[in-house]
Design goal:
The chain folds into 3 domains: about 70 residues, Phosphatidylinositol 3-kinase Catalytic Subunit, Chain A, domain 1 (Ubiquitin-like (UB roll), Roll); about 60 residues, Beta Barrel (Ribosomal Protein L25, Chain P); about 120 residues. It is about 15% helix and about 35% strand. The protein is built from 4 helices and 20 strands. The chain has a 6-stranded antiparallel sheet with strand order 15-16-17-18-20-19, covered by helices on one side. Strands 2-1-7-4-5 form a 5-stranded mixed sheet, covered by helices on one side. The protein has a 5-stranded mixed sheet with strand order 9-8-14-11-12, covered by helices on one side. The radius of gyration is 24 Å and the shape is elongated. InterPro entries: Multi-ubiquitin_dom, UBQ-conjugat_E2_E. This is Multiubiquitin domain-containing protein. It comes from Deinococcus antarcticus. Pfam families: Multi_ubiq (PF14452), Prok-E2_E (PF14462).
Length: about 280
């Protein structure tokens, strides 16, 4: 009689991807090889209540526990200090000490009402709803972004229709992928756009600009902008109609006003075009 036991498959996750092993004991080196991760990356075991335990490449790990083991791997240079995992909720930046969080964790850290609906912005696919019990991996390259909505009276859980600001900002990011949108408690918002190309009239090849989105936008027009230092004209003169104010005291404020703003025809993207036109003037 053949008394051998049938083969068993042991599941584990690394960087939010699931893999299977026929061996119940693996080393971090073996996990990285199977997942196609750079061998120089450092592996951490996910801990629900702590940043995670860093594992030596040769440490044997049992995969036969009652729950699926979770790990994340990051470049060694990023692991020199205890990593903080950044994410955005409704345009605000937050940090977590651990990469494996649930929807409930995200709402708690962001101070979102417990009954709010939470959605994750899709990078290459549609946005998806994140349940309170859904696990989210914050260790992927880039920053994960989420947005919230209070439940509709009819109990609908579909992703809410984006308002004009969110829709326009998504279009802006198609051209300027490093642009940032920060909602403020008073209902205004700040937009920061790095990588604005400059003409040879300036001593720098690029600039980072900021502007405020007022309450009532887009009916209320955009007005004025700031440029982060350094920004210097090559001829040594000060740019025309500039100064400093309390909102961004370290930045150079351009008193520049748009004539004939149309809430139906103009957008964040066209306003950045207006800013570029002003800077291209080179004075």
């Amino acid at each position: 009689m053949n008394t051998s036991q049938p083969d068993r498959t042991y599941l584990y996750e690394i960087n939010a991807q699931e893999f299977a092993s026929s061996d119940n004991t693996q080393t971090p080196q073996q996990l990285k090889a199977q997942a196609g991760i750079e061998p120089t990356h450092v592996v951490f075991r996910v801990d629900q209540n702590a940043p995670g335990e860093q594992l030596d490449d040769a440490t044997p790990i049992s995969l036969s526990g009652s729950q699926v083991e979770r790990f994340y791997a990051i470049p060694r240079e990023d692991a020199q200090e205890r990593p903080h995992f950044k994410f955005n909720v409704d345009g605000q930046r937050y940090e977590s000490l651990r990469p494996d969080v649930t929807g409930a964790d995200i709402k708690l850290m962001a101070g979102v009402p417990a009954n709010a609906l939470l959605f994750q912005e899709g990078r290459t696919s549609a946005d998806q709803r994140i349940e309170d019990s859904t696990h989210v991996n914050l260790a992927r390259p880039g920053t994960e972004s989420f947005y919230t909505s209070l439940p509709a009276n009819n109990g609908s859980v579909d992703a809410p229709v984006r308002g004009p600001l969110d829709t326009q900002f998504a279009a802006l990011q198609q051209i300027y992928p490093n642009a940032e949108l920060t909602h403020q408690p008073d209902g205004t918002a700040w937009v920061r756009v790095p990588g604005i190309p400059l003409t040879p009239a300036w001593t720098e090849p690029q600039a980072t600009v900021k502007f405020v989105v007022p309450n009532g936008y887009p009916a209320s027009p955009l007005d004025c902008f700031w440029v982060e230092p350094p920004l210097t004209l090559r001829n040594g003169a000060s740019p025309a109609n500039t100064g400093h104010n309390a909102l961004f005291p370290q930045d150079l404020w351009f008193s520049y006003h748009v004539q004939g703003w149309s809430p139906t025809e103009n957008s964040l993207l066209t306003y950045v075009g207006v800013i570029r036109q002003r800077l291209n003037a080179g004075n």
